[in-house]
Amino acid sequence: MKEETDRAWLEVAPLARVNVVSVEFATGTQISPELRERIAALLRAYHPNDDAEHEWIQEMSDVGVRGALRDSGYFKAKSLAETRLAGEDEDSRRCAVTLHIDEGQQYRLGTVRFEPADRDKSLALPENELRELVPLKQGDLFDVSKTREAMERITKLYAGRGYIDQVPEPVMNVDTNEGVIDLLLRIDEGLQYRVGKVEFLGLAESAQRELQPQLKSGAIYDRNQVEQLLKGNRSMLPSDASWNDVSERRNTAERTVDLRFDFYTCPKFRN
Question: What pTM value is reported for the model?
Fold first, then answer.
């Protein structure tokens, strides 16, 4: 009877909210009690909407569980989540989760290197400056989320120096014998741009005159300055001003970026 109830739960397709009420780890799991509790807390805080395919189960296993394991050095970890209906009402379902985890080897960070995607060029920024943006030291547990954080920091740094198309690619050399991962960040810097023409639409002329000097034509384009302009001039801008109001037009031949801030609002139609 219980198997028929569980099967029926998996065959229906309501958009009910799922609440994880208990998390168990299958026999053989070797991770620490602290990591178990961290994973359990992640799953208890996860409240997806159920659907006919129950895709949330796989997402929970891949993103939530495996993600936490990879952030704790278990770079090649695998996980499988089994769910059981523990109760339901009109718009929510309570489920119990059993996790089958093959954590594998725990890895630590080895070396960190940087190189240009174009081997015939040198990086525009010094390696020691880039290394400071990687929040991991040699010997630390290899943390995938901190690797992503490093890439975001590097992208933001380059965007402030005119390299708005820069793309970092992580290359990981896994040494199973030593239990270390050497990290190489291969950087495609792209072109360095300067500020071209700057337009402000939908603002009073007095506001335009005050904003114009904040982005000087001919200066190296610092995308972070656009963000500062949007955040630091709230009194002159529409309350909902954001990057959605900004367009960048690249001129690769001149290596300039024309900026248009369009704050015009659509008229409201009346019946």
Answer: 0.82
